Amino acid sequence: MEKFASDVKNLLEQELFLFKSLKKVFQKEQHCIVNIDIDSLWHTIKEKKDLGLKIRELKEQLLSLFEEESVVSGVNREEPLNLSGMIEIMSAPGELKSEISGLKTLIVGEMEEIKALAEVNSNHVNSYLLVVDDVFSTIMDVTEKSRYDTAGPYSGVKKGNCLIRQEV
Question: Which of 34, 51, 92, 97 is the most exposed place for a label (fewest CB within 10 A)?
């Protein structure tokens, strides 16, 4: 049983490391967005995708480890296991179990920080896209163009003041 708990702890430490790496990539992405560094931005997208796949693989390993253990120990649960439920049913020495719970708390904290960074990055991108949209609308004198913001379409109609006018 102690080997099982040790394996769980090892997988959670790896997962925490990957989430910290993912948070750094989101911070790098934010820097790329602010500095309009498109090449580096594309690179961060690939990094996020790769880290996401590694995290998914670790979660699957953790789940299969718990499924194997529950079959061995005779635990019969009808609802799907989440990390808290897994830790709850795990029989391990108190100190090791508290370390595992601490790792879970750290992982959840990293996930919340990543979620906040993703939202900020998304807001930056949307702001830049609105500026680009306004520039093109001004250049092309598009007065009745559908306009969108993060909540969807809105009826703010752009008034006609253009730099270049095209007439046929």
Answer: 34
